[in-house]
Structure formats: structure tokens, C-alpha cells
Specification:
Blueprint lengths: L9 E2 L13 E9 L7 E9 L2 E9 L19 E4 L44 E7 L11 E5 L16 E11 L2
Antiparallel strand pairs: 1-8, 2-3, 2-8, 3-4, 4-6, 5-7, 7-8
Bound molecules: copper (II) ion (CU).
Copper (II) ion binds next to strand 5 and strand 7.
Amino acid sequence: MFYDARTVNQELPNNTRNENRSEEVVVAASIIGGPLAPEIEGIVYFDPVEDGTDVTVIVYGLPDYQPARNGHAPIGPFGFHIHENGDCSVGNSDSPFEISGNHWNPTNQPHGNHAGDFPNLFSNNGFCQMSFFTNKFTPEEVLGKAVIIHQNPDDFRTQPAGNTGKRLACGVIGYYSER
Ligand SMILES: [Cu+2]
């Protein structure tokens, strides 16, 4: 199942949730760049499959890659996670999206094995498309949480967040429908 990002950017009212869900209703997150990367836009789909979820991300406007230098982490590939709070308020513009909280980690695992630990996003002139399967949750279990794109790559070993640096973009996971 595949939808264009621009057709699914409206969340359904609360009173339509779980009632007669048609095939046009999907669990997804519309991604918006914050003050450090306002060009970013995109969508993440969470499609139910046997024993888990197919996650598909389509993002535009990622910053250009910059290699590590002078003790600074590389910019890109971009760390990508589910965070525990579905709130994409910017807050501090020098360190946006802090209100989304820490990684979603319902089984109390070390970073690298959080339910919300995802592969890094690789930019192709700003564009990324990626799909992967996870058995760590169903789409319903991540409703009301947030997806975050970070400035730096996830090393999947530094605790508690993989040394992924600042938060470039955010999206709240909810029910979306085609318009
Ligand atoms: Cu994160």
C-alpha cells in the first residue's frame, strides 16, 4: 500500500478512530523540519503485517552530508527513532523538539535495541526513501508517539541515544486518511 505524502497530511477527528476503519486510513506520521532544518518534509507509514509492522519513510529536504571534522560528528546519515511523547512543539530553537522526550523503550532495553531504534536515513540530494520490517510493535502501539530525525548518525552503542545529536525534524504518529 503506497500513498503520496501530500494526500495524507490530515489527521482524523478523535471520534472517527477505531470505527469502520477503511483501507484509506493508515497509521502514519507527517514529518516537518524544525528551525535547524526547515526544508525537511515527509511521511512515515506504519503498515500492519504478520507479526509486526512495515515501516516506510519518504523524506525530502535533508541537509547535505558533511564529514566529521575537528571533533564534530558527521552531519548525516541521520539518526531516526520513535520518541516517547507525541508532541512536536519546537521549544528551544537551538535544541528543538526536546519535549518529544527520550527514545520509546517499552521493554527497557539498552540503546541499539529500543523498540523505537530505527536505521539511519541516507540522503540522496536531500531525498530518502526506506522501508524495513520490525517485529517490535504493531502500528497501534505507536499511536500518539513521535518520530524524530537527528542531525548525526546513530552509532547504536552510545547510551542512551546513540550520539545522534540535535533534532532536525519531528512528526506525531496518528491515524491519517486520504483527502
Ligand atoms: Cu532520537
